[in-house]
Design brief:
There is one protein chain. This protein has about 250 residues and is of the alpha/beta class. About 40% of the residues are buried. The chain has helices spanning about 15-25, 35-50, 65-70, 100-130, 150-170, 190-195, 200-205, 215-225; strands at about 5-10, 30, 55, 85, 135-140, 175-185, 235-240. Helix 3 (about 65-70) packs parallel to helix 4 (about 100-130) and helix 4 (about 100-130) packs parallel to helix 5. It contains 8 helices and 7 strands, in the order βαβαβαβαβαβαααβ. It has one domain (about 5-240): Rossmann fold. It has a 7-stranded parallel beta sheet, with helices on both faces. The structure holds NADPH dihydro-nicotinamide-adenine-dinucleotide phosphate (NDP) and 2-hydroxyethylsulfonic acid. NADPH dihydro-nicotinamide-adenine-dinucleotide phosphate binds near residues 13, 14, 15 and 62.
């Protein structure tokens, strides 16, 4: 993956940050997105020092105009994106479908579905033209089946599966590849955001079980991206050893 151009949305934390570190270590040049500009800059400093080129592209994936402006600002080699990692995503709350906050759910749907779709719509035409590219969507075990309080989030990740499968169908007569990585429990800032900033409650959630971290998932993403050109890893479900389904896991007390 030396000198390949890898565009990662949501690179400022967790799985996206893990991917940035892994692809940089393997010699890829990076376009890093997120809203936290300070974190993007510090990551750029850190990874550039390893000898790869890093471009930061801060925008909110829900803001289509900002996204378009940012993508249109790419020049020279940065236009030739080899791998798009659609990773930016979140959930807010763990509420019942008939009780939750519609404004919060708008944020979740607009980020996880519409943001991912808009990125795909903006980046993939260039890949088709160049006859080269790989779209890696970060789905979730949550897209497999709904669980209590997860209704809307699970629906967004089921949508990521449908969008990944649909794109794979639409690209079947091209050399492009589409992968949906579906992690189970990963300890990142995700659960803090889910619990609306309650870090103590998030830490409690991970007690008694050795869960994945962003670097574990990044290894899987890299494996898919670096497979030979004729090998398309369509989906990967990856979870901690003591997790069996979206709702069944074993935690030592
Ligand atoms: P984190 O909260 O650690 O990271 C989320 C990333 O998404 C951050 O970099 C954040 O950056 C970015 N982001 C959120 N909203 C936006 C936005 N509107 N525009 C641009 N960037 C945005 O969580 P994870 O690393 O765990 O989550 C990454 C992906 O993995 C998500 O799609 C999540 O659904 C999925 N996932 C997570 C699992 C887990 O258990 N943690 C399991 C399965 C899937 P910033 O705040 O700078 O914008
Ligand atoms: C995050 C995994 O099961 O916590 O996508 O919703 S889960």
């Amino acid at each position: 993956m030396k000198n390949k151009i890898v565009f990662i949305t949501g690179a400022t934390s967790g799985i996206g940050e893990g991917c940035a570190r892994k692809f940089a270590a393997m010699g890829s040049d990076l376009i890093l997105n997120g809203r936290n500009t300070e974190k993007l800059e510090s990551l750029k400093q850190e990874l550039s020092a390893q000898g790869v080129d890093v471009l930061t592209l801060p925008f909110d994936v829900r803001d289509r105009n900002a996204m378009r402006k940012a993508v249109e600002s790419l020049s020279g080699k940065w236009k030739n994106i080899d791998v798009l990692i659609n990773n930016a995503g979140l959930v807010i709350g763990l509420d019942k479908e008939f009780e939750g906050n519609l404004d919060e759910w708008d944020i979740v749907i607009d980020t996880n579905i519409k943001g991912l779709l808009a990125m795909t719509r903006m980046i993939v035409p260039g890949m088709v033209e160049r006859k080269c590219g790989h779209i890696i969507n970060i789905g979730s075990i949550a897209g497999e089946a709904a669980y209590p309080g997860g209704s809307v989030y699970c629906a967004t990740k089921a949508a990521v599966k449908a969008l990944s499968d649909g794109l794979r169908i639409d690209l079947v007569d091209t050399p492009l590849r589409v992968t949906n990585i579906k992690p189970g429990m990963v300890e990142t800032n995700f659960t803090v955001v889910r619990y609306r900033g309650d870090k103590k409650r998030a830490d409690e959630f991970y007690k008694g079980i050795h869960v994945l971290n962003g670097d574990d998932v990044a290894e899987v993403v890299y494996f898919a991206a670096s497979a030979p050109a004729h090998v398309q890893i369509a989906e990967v479900l990856v979870m901690p050893t003591n997790q069996a389904t979206g709702t069944i896991s074993y935690k030592k007390s």
